[in-house]
C-alpha cells in the first residue's frame, strides 16, 4: 500500500486564526491558509485549491496512462480542476469538480481521445475519492 501525507497546523479562532499546510515531500512547506484565503481573496492557499491541484494532476497522469495503452504518447496535457463549494445542510460541502483539459496527442482521433478522457475522469484515484459531481470539458488540440 502506498502512503503519502499532508499536514496542517491551525492557531486561533475560525475568522482571525491562521494556519500552515505542508506536504511530506516538502513541495509545500508551511504555506499559509486561513479564513481569508478560503472565503475571501487573501494571500495563501486553501483546501479546495489543493484538492483541485490534486484532482488535475491525478487525472492528467491517468489520461497519459490510458492513452499509452493505445500506443499514444501525449506531447502535453493541461488540466484545471475547479472545485465548487456551496452551503448545504447548515454547513459547507464540496458539490462539484469540473475538469478542463486540453491535450496535444499526435495520432489520436477525437473519438479515441474523448473515450480516454472519460475513462480517466471516472477512474483516476482522486475522482474515486470525491463524492461530488464531476464534470469535464475536453479538447484535443
Please summarize what this structure is.
The protein is 33% helix and 36% strand. With 141 residues, it is of the alpha+beta class.
What do you see in this structure?
- This protein is an alpha+beta fold and 141 residues long.
- The chain is 33% helix and 36% strand.
- The protein has helices at residues 35-39, 47-68, 110-123, 125-129; strands spanning 6-11, 18-23, 31-34, 76-88, 91-104, 133-140.
- Strand 2 and strand 3 form a beta hairpin.
- The mean pLDDT is 95.
Question: Secondary-structure map with pairings?
Answer:
Elements: E1 6-11, E2 18-23, E3 31-34, H1 35-39, H2 47-68, E4 76-88, E5 91-104, H3 110-123, H4 125-129, E6 133-140
Parallel strand pairs: 5-6
Antiparallel strand pairs: 1-2, 2-3, 4-5
Helix pairs in contact: 2-3
DSSP helical segment count: 4
Mind telling me the C-alpha Rg?
Answer: 17 Å
Secondary structure tally: strands: 6
Q: What is the N-to-C order of secondary-structure elements (H for helix, E for strand)?
A: EEEHHEEHHE
**Ends distance:** 37 Å
Mean pLDDT: 95
Name the assembly state.
single chain
Helical content stands at 25-40%
Uncertain stretches:
none
What is the molecular shape?
elongated
Strand content: 35-45%
Q: Structural class, judged by helices and strands?
A: alpha+beta
Give the strand order of the largest sheet, numbering strands 1, 2, ... along the chain. 1-2-3
Largest sheet: 3 strands, antiparallel
Amino acid at each position: 500500500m502506498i502512503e503519502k501525507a499532508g499536514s496542517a497546523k491551525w492557531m486561533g479562532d475560525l475568522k482571525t486564526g491562521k494556519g500552515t499546510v505542508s506536504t511530506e515531500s516538502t513541495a509545500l512547506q508551511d504555506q499559509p491558509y486561513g479564513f481569508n484565503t478560503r472565503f475571501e481573496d487573501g494571500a495563501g492557499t486553501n483546501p479546495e485549491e489543493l484538492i483541485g491541484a490534486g484532482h488535475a494532476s491525478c487525472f492528467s497522469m491517468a489520461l497519459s496512462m490510458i492513452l499509452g495503452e493505445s500506443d499514444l504518447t501525449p506531447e502535453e496535457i493541461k488540466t484545471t480542476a475547479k472545485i465548487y463549494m456551496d452551503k448545504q445542510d447548515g454547513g459547507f460541502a464540496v458539490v462539484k469538480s469540473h475538469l478542463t483539459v486540453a491535450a496535444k496527442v499526435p495520432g489520436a482521433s477525437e473519438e479515441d481521445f474523448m473515450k480516454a478522457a472519460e475513462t480517466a475522469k471516472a477512474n483516476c484515484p482522486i475522482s474515486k475519492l470525491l463524492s461530488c459531481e464531476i464534470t469535464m470539458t475536453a479538447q484535443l488540440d
